[in-house]
Design a protein that fits this description.
About 55% of the residues lie in helices and about 15% in strands. It is built from 27 helices and 21 strands. Strand 17 (about 625-630) and strand 18 form a beta hairpin. Helix 8 (about 250-290) runs parallel beside helix 15 (about 425-460), helix 17 packs antiparallel against helix 22 and helix 24 (about 755-795) runs antiparallel to helix 25. It folds into four domains: about 1-55 and about 255-425, no CATH class; about 60-220, no CATH class; about 425-515 and about 700-840, no CATH class; about 545-675, no CATH class. The chain has about 850 residues and is of the alpha+beta class. The protein has a six-stranded mixed beta barrel. The chain has a six-stranded mixed barrel with strand order 12-14-19-16-18-17.
C-alpha cells in the first residue's frame, strides 16, 4: 500500500514539470555524457585496432630481433609454420638532398622491406600507384616513398633525387598511409619505405648498426597463435626474440590508448562529483519548497516511509531522465564527430554504439545521484509535521538515520569498486578518489572559514556599505557560499592540477633540458670512424664537450640462473637495453657499491649496473646476470653499482661490462656533441659528408617531437578538466538562481533604506567576485598540492608552481562567479520594494 501510494503521489508531483530540476538534470547529464563519450571513443579505437590488428602488425604474427638477422634455423622454423614470411628492417638515417652544391638533411625512420610487403593491407601512395612500381624507380635509380612531412621539409617532388648513406634514390610518391603505421612505436622522424635489397650499397646496414628486424608471418587459418608463441619461446629461448601476434597487434599503442581513456574517465568522475554538489543542492532546494506539501501529508497521516518513498521515486524518475539524456549525448557526440576524429587519428577507429561504456557511465551516474540525493531525502523522515510548518527542512536533525548513512557509505564503496574494475588501475583510481574526497573536505572547511572571516571583518567595517553588505551576505548561514566554493572550487581544482602537471612537464622538457643537453646525438659510428669523428670535433673552438662510448644492445634473459621476467617485472627487463664496455668508470658517475675492475682485467665477465634500477629489481654486488647480445648469451657477475642520472641528457647506460666480456661482438659507437647553436649546421655537414652512414639526432628536434606528443595528451586532459569546470559553472548558476529570491528581498530592503541601484549592484558584484576568488584560491592550493604529488611520486621530477596558470585559475574563479552572480542580479534590481515587502506579510 505504501509503495503504491508513494508512486501515485510521486507521479502527481511530476505533473508540475521540471522547474527546479534543470540544474539537477544538466549536472547529471553532462557528467554522464562526458564519461560515455570518452568510453565510446576508446571503444571505437579498440574495435578498430582489433579489426585491423593483423594489418597493423603487418601479419598474423611477428618475430622481432634486435640488431641482427634471423639465423638459418629461425628462418626455417618460420617458413615451416607460415605460408609466407616477410622481412622488414627498421632503423634511422639521414635523408640528404643536394641543391647547387649544398646538402640539405633530415632525419627519417626507414622501413626497408621485401617484395612480400605488406602481407596484409594496402599501402596508399600519392599519386596512386602500386608499391612495386614506386620501388622500381627511374633513370636507373631505385625508388623511395616518403611521408608528406619529410617531403615538405626537404621541398621535394616526385622525380627528385634523395640520398640515403651512399645510395641515391628517386622519390616516386608520397607515402599517404601504410597498414603497419601504428606498430612501430614512437619515431623521431617521418617514415620512408625502400626495398631492403636497394640498400646493399648504401653502407647503412653494416655490422654493429642500430637496427631491428621484424619477420611477419602469414599463418594458415587454423593456426594456434598461443601454441606457436610457446613453441618459439621454447625452441629459441635464449635468442632474445620478441613475439607479437594479431591478438595484440598494436602493442604499446593499445595499452596507451586504454590507459589514457581510463585517466580521462576518472577526470569525468571528478566532473560527476562536482555535479553531485549541484544535484544535492537542487534536491535540498526542491524539498524546502515542498514544505507545505510534506506538512500536509504528515498531518493527514502519511508515514515517514511514505514521504521518503514519494520523493525517492520522484528523484529516481528524474535521475533516469538525466541518465538517458547523458547517454544520448555521449553516443551522439562521438558519432557526429567521428569523421573529424578519424581523420586526426593515426590508427583505425570503428565508431558505433558500444554497450560497455554506456553501462559504465550509467552506473557511475546512478551511484553519484544516489550518494548525493540520499542525504537530503533521508532528512525528510526525521522532521516532525509541526516543525515543518515552522522552519522547513532546516529544523531536522543534522544527520540522517544510521541506515541511510550506511547506505551512502555502501554506494561510495560500490562506486570505487566499479571504477577500479572498469579502469583496471586500482592505484590511480584510489588516488583520484582520495584527491576528490580530500578536495571536497578542504573546500568544505574553506567555505566555513570564508563565512567566519566574512562575519568577523564585516562587523568592523565603517563607511564601506557596499563591501559590508557583500561580506554580510557571504557570512550568512545557509547562504550560497558553501555551494559556490564547493562547485566552482572542485572544478577549478581539477583544472589547476592539470595546469600545474602540464606546465611542470613542459618546463622540464623545453626549459631545463636544453640548458644542459647536447646539440646532437650521433649513432651508428663505426669503430674505424671514431678517430676521424673525434678529430673533426677536437679542433673546433665552438665545441665545448664530446662524449663517446661503444654501443651495443642486449636483452636481460636471466638473473641468478632464473628467467629474468620471473624474478621481477621491471622496465629494464622489458625489451633490449643499451650496453657498453669500458676499462675505467664514467667520470660523472659515482660507484656506490663494489669496485670497478682493473684496467687490464681479462677474467670472467663482470658488469656494472645502475644503482636505482638494481635496487628496484633486487640486485646487488655478486649477483649474476645473463644478457643476450646479438643472439649470444653472456653471463656476468655484478662487480659494482653506479649512481646514474638518466635525466642529464648525457650518455648513460644501465649496464657496462669489462671489454673482454664483449670481445669480438660487432658494435658501433654513440656520441654526444655539446656545441654552440651557430656551429651545429657546419658540424652536421662536415661529419655527414665524411661519414654518410652516421645518423644525427638533433636534440631540439627530438624535444619538439616529444613536446607535440605531450601537447596531445595535455589537450585531452584539459578537455576533461574543462567539462568538470563547466559542470561546476552549472552548479554555480544553480546556486545563483536559488539565491535570487533572497537577493530580491535584500534589494527591496536596501531600496527602502535609500540605497541606489548602482550601490546594490556593486554589492552583488563584489559578493560574487569575492566568493569566486576565494574558491579560486582554495582550488589553487588543492591543484598545486595535487600537481606536486603527481610530479614527485609519478613523474619523479622537480616541481615548481606555474604562476601564470595559478593566477589564471584565481582570476577565472572570480570572473565565473561574477558572471553567474550578475546574471541573476538584474531582476532583483527591477522589483518594486512595496510589492516584495507586502508579499512577506
Amino acid at each position: 500500500m505504501s509503495l503504491a501510494l508513494s508512486a501515485r503521489l510521486a507521479r502527481r508531483e511530476l505533473r508540475g514539470g521540471l522547474r527546479g530540476f534543470r540544474i539537477f538534470l544538466a549536472c547529471l547529464a553532462l557528467g554522464v555524457a562526458a564519461i560515455a563519450a570518452v568510453g565510446m571513443v576508446r571503444s571505437a579505437i579498440q574495435a578498430g585496432l582489433e579489426r585491423e590488428s593483423a594489418a597493423i602488425l603487418g601479419g598474423d604474427a611477428e618475430i622481432e630481433l634486435t640488431y641482427r638477422y634471423a639465423t638459418d634455423d629461425e628462418l626455417a622454423w618460420m617458413r615451416g609454420v607460415a605460408e609466407t614470411v616477410s622481412e622488414v628492417v627498421d632503423f634511422r638515417s639521414m635523408a640528404v638532398v643536394d641543391r647547387g652544391g649544398e646538402a640539405e638533411r633530415a632525419l627519417t625512420q626507414i622501413r626497408a622491406v621485401d617484395d612480400a610487403y605488406p602481407l596484409i593491407g594496402q599501402v596508399r601512395l600519392e599519386p596512386e600507384m602500386p608499391l612495386e612500381a614506386a620501388f622500381a624507380g627511374a633513370d636507373g635509380l631505385p625508388g623511395i616513398v616518403m611521408e608528406r612531412a619529410l617531403v615538405d621539409r626537404l621541398a621535394l617532388s616526385p622525380g627528385d633525387r634523395v640520398r640515403l648513406g651512399t645510395q641515391d634514390f628517386v622519390l616516386s610518391a608520397v607515402l599517404a598511409r601504410y597498414p603497419d603505421s601504428a606498430s612501430g612505436g614512437f619515431d623521431f622522424g617521418p617514415r620512408s619505405l625502400v626495398l631492403r635489397a636497394d640498400l646493399a650499397a648504401s653502407g647503412l646496414l653494416a655490422e654493429g648498426t642500430l637496427f631491428s628486424t621484424m619477420y611477419r608471418m602469414d599463418l594458415p587459418p587454423a593456426a594456434d597463435l598461443q601454441a606457436l608463441e610457446d613453441e618459439a619461446g621454447t625452441r629459441f629461448r635464449d635468442s632474445g626474440l620478441r613475439w607479437r601476434d594479431a591478438r595484440r597487434g598494436a602493442g604499446g599503442t593499445e595499452v596507451f590508448i586504454d590507459r589514457l581513456g581510463s585517466f580521462l574517465v576518472l577526470i569525468g568522475l571528478s566532473g560527476l562529483a562536482v555535479g553531485g554538489v549541484g544535484i544535492s543542492a537542487a534536491v535540498r532546494a526542491y524539498l524546502s519548497g515542498k514544505t507545505a506539501t510534506i506538512a500536509t501529508l504528515r498531518t493527514l497521516g502519511a508515514t515517514r516511509s511514505t514521504i521518503f518513498l514519494t520523493y525517492f521515486f520522484q528523484i529516481g524518475a528524474l535521475t533516469l531522465l538525466g541518465l538517458a539524456i547523458g547517454l544520448a549525448l555521449g553516443v551522439l557526440a562521438p558519432l557526429a564527430l567521428a569523421p573529424l576524429i578519424t581523420a586526426r587519428l593515426p590508427i583505425p577507429a570503428e565508431f558505433g554504439i558500444y554497450p560497455r561504456p554506456l553501462v559504465e557511465a550509467a552506473l557511475y551516474g546512478a551511484l553519484v545521484a544516489g550518494i548525493f540525493t540520499l542525504w537530503p531525502l533521508a532528512r525528510t523522515e526525521n522532521v516532525r509535521a509541526a516543525t515543518l510548518f515552522r522552519d522547513a527542512m532546516g529544523a531536522g536533525g543534522a544527520l540522517p538515520r544510521r541506515r541511510y548513512l550506511s547506505t551512502i557509505l555502501g554506494l561510495v564503496a560500490v562506486l570505487l569498486a566499479s571504477a577500479v574494475l572498469f579502469s583496471g588501475t586500482w592505484r590511480l583510481t584510489l588516488s583520484t578518489a582520495g584527491g576528490i574526497a580530500g578536495a571536497l573536505v578542504l573546500l568544505s572547511l574553506a567555505a566555513l572559514g570564508v563565512q567566519a572571516l566574512a562575519r568577523r571583518f564585516g562587523r568592523g567595517l565603517r563607511g564601506r556599505p557596499g563591501l559590508r553588505l557583500a561580506l554580510g551576505a557571504i557570512g550568512k548561514r545557509g547562504g550560497e557560499t558553501g555551494s559556490v566554493v564547493l562547485s566552482l572550487g572542485l572544478g577549478l581544482s581539477v583544472l589547476a592540477a592539470v595546469g600545474q602537471i602540464d606546465g611542470n612537464l613542459r618546463r622540464a622538457i623545453t626549459d631545463d633540458l636544453p640548458q644542459v643537453a647536447p646539440a646532437y646525438f650521433f649513432v651508428d659510428i663505426q669503430p674505424e670512424q671514431i678517430d676521424g669523428f673525434r678529430e673533426r670535433l677536437d679542433g673546433d673552438p665552438q665545441v665545448s664537450r664530446v662524449d663517446s662510448a661503444p654501443m651495443l644492445r642486449g636483452i636481460i634473459t636471466g638473473i641468478n640462473g632464473r628467467p629474468a621476467r620471473e624474478v621481477a617485472d621491471h622496465w629494464v627487463l622489458h625489451g633490449d637495453r643499451g650496453l657498453t664496455y669500458s676499462t675505467t668508470p664514467p667520470e660523472d658517475e659515482e660507484i656506490v657499491a663494489g669496485e670497478w675492475w682493473d684496467e687490464g682485467y681479462d677474467g670472467p665477465p663482470l658488469i656494472s649496473f645502475a644503482e636505482e634500477e638494481a635496487l628496484e629489481i633486487g640486485l646487488g654486488v655478486g649477483d649474476e646476470i645473463t644478457v643476450n647480445v646479438l643472439g649470444r648469451d653472456v653471463t656476468a657477475t655484478i662487480a659494482n653499482l653506479r649512481r646514474v642520472d638518466f635525466g642529464s641528457a648525457a650518455i648513460a647506460f644501465v649496464m657496462s661490462m669489462n671489454p673482454g666480456a664483449l670481445a669480438g661482438a660487432p658494435h658501433s659507437w654513440i656520441s654526444t656533441v655539446y656545441a654552440e647553436e651557430q656551429a651545429e649546421a657546419a658540424i652536421l655537414r662536415d661529419l655527414a659528408d665524411a661519414y654518410p652512414n652516421i645518423t644525427a639526432i638533433r636534440v631540439r628536434d627530438a624535444i619538439a617531437q616529444v613536446t607535440r606528443v605531450i601537447d596531445g595528451i595535455a589537450a585531452a586532459t584539459r578537455y576533461g578538466a574543462a567539462a568538470t569546470l563547466l559542470t561546476g559553472f552549472l552548479v554555480l548558476i544553480g546556486a545563483a538562481a536559488a539565491g535570487e529570491r533572497s537577493r530580491t528581498y535584500e534589494a527591496a530592503i536596501l531600496k527602502t533604506l535609500g540605497a541606489s541601484r548602482r550601490r546594490i549592484l556593486a554589492s552583488f558584484a563584489l559578493r560574487a567576485a569575492l566568493l569566486g576568488a576565494a574558491a579560486g584560491l582554495v582550488a589553487l592550493g588543492a591543484g598545486v598540492l595535487g600537481g606536486w604529488a603527481v610530479a614527485r611520486f609519478v613523474m619523479e621530477t622537480d616541481f615548481a608552481v606555474i604562476w601564470t596558470s595559478a593566477i589564471g585559475i584565481v582570476l577565472g574563479g572570480a570572473i565565473a562567479s561574477l558572471m553567474a552572480g550578475l546574471g541573476f542580479a538584474w531582476r532583483p534590481l527591477k522589483v518594486r520594494p512595496a510589492q516584495v515587502l507586502r508579499a512577506q506579510d
